[in-house]
Every structure is written in C-alpha cells, then in structure tokens.
Amino acid sequence: GAPDAHGDKIRRGAADDGTGVAGVLELARAFKALGPTDRTTVFAAWTAEERGLLGSELYGLHPTVALPKMAANFTMDTLQTAGPSHDVVLIGYGQNQLDEMLAKAAAGQDRTVTPDAHPERGLFYRADHFPLAKHGVPVLLLMGLGGGPDLVKGGRPAGEAWVNAFTANCYHKACDAWRPDWDLTGAAQDVDLLYVMGKEIATSRIWPQWKAGSEFKPVRDQ
C-alpha cells in the first residue's frame, strides 16, 4: 500500500488489534489485583488470526483448560477509538445467555446493547472466539467494526462515519497507527463490561447456555 504519515509502509495494527490486546492485558492486570477467584481465568492473545484463525484453532484442539469445563469466552477485536457511546455493538446477538449478562452490565453504565449492523459480513465466524464456539463454549465478541456505535458526540451517524472511514482507509493498511486524536473512553467502557461479566462468572457457579436454535447448542449439550 501507499506510505502512511510516517513515510513508510509498516502495518502497525494499532487499532486492529493493538486495542484488543491492550484490553486483554488490562483485564489480566485487574483480575490479578482482584485476587484468587473460585474459577480459573485464562488470558490469551492469539497469533495468525488473519491466516485462518490459526492460533485460536490450535488452542481449540490443544486447550490448557478442558473446553467442556470452560464457562465462557470473551473476545475483543478492534475496539472503537471515537469516544464514549450510548451503546455497545454486539457481534452474534441472540446466540447465548451472555447477551443478557452484557445488557445488565451495560445498564450499569447507562448504556444499551445494539446487535451487529452488518450480519451479512459474517464477522461472528471470522474472529478468534469462533474455534471455541465450535467446541461448545459460549462466546461473546466485541468488535468495533460490527457497526457504528451511538456516540455521545454525533450519535449513530458519527459512529458509522468512524467505522466507514477506518474500514476504507486503515483496515489492514499502514494508516492503522496510533493518532493523538483517538478518544479511548468508549473502548475503556467496553473493556469494563467484560470485567464486570468476567468477575460475575469467575466468582459464582453461573453456567451460561446457548439459546435454543443456536447451531452450537448441540455441541455443548453433548
């Protein structure tokens, strides 16, 4: 591709998926500070997602924790950098009971849940949670590219403008570098949601279920 503002062609991947990796690291720090929990929590950053989910596929075949005993998986892939929003966009809405947990956590922030605006893109089947879903683990994916959030500044049109601009100009390109005008407030809110949900599962005997009609429910039932 064409050189970026730095004058080179390096694809830094700052948003995709530096933001998601940063979120995982922050959650790991927060859970360590929380202290021991009833259930084990595992934190991972997969390699070669863009080559066919190779890293997460390998983990699905050779997990460090038995997948039938894994209560849930939370995955972050490209958090939005456009500021605080009134909602959180959920990829794969309607698959399992983690939806309701997300809605409860979002309500605690005075926010709501909006289903993926572009299901035809098949984003639910293209991220690193998918190999775990195939093995029956209930999953929840937060991905900023699933649709424009309802931003506090500018509403849904501003959120869609952010998604469209990133997808057209920076997705898998040298443009995906950190910028001083990033507002990570909304991204931090989304990471907080996963902390609230993860803490509730890690400190209880909650066993999230796939919903009737989900293609992954029979695998979990077995």
What is the topology, as strand order, of the major beta sheet? 1-4-2-3
Helix percent reads 25-40%
Query: Could you list the spans in which at least 5 consecutive residues all have pLDDT below 50?
Result: none
Q: How much beta, percentage-wise? A: 5-15%
Strand segment tally: 4
End-to-end Cα distance, whole Å, is 47 Å
Computed over alpha carbons, the radius of gyration is 17 Å
- Number of helical stretches of at least 4 residues: 7
Largest sheet: 4 strands, mixed
In short:
The protein is of the alpha/beta class and about 220 residues long.
Helices, strands, pairings?
Elements lengths: L13 H21 L19 H8 L11 E5 L9 E5 L6 H10 L4 E4 L14 H5 L4 E5 L11 H15 L15 H18 L14 H5 L1
Parallel strand pairs: 1-4, 2-3
Antiparallel strand pairs: 2-4
Helix pairs in contact: 1-6, 3-6
How would you describe the overall organization of this protein?
With 222 residues, the chain is of the alpha/beta class. Helix content is 37%, strand content 9%. It has helices at 14-34, 54-61, 98-107, 130-134, 155-169, 185-202, 217-221; strands spanning 73-77, 87-91, 112-115, 139-143. It is globular. The mean pLDDT is 91.
Tag the structure with descriptive keywords.
alpha/beta
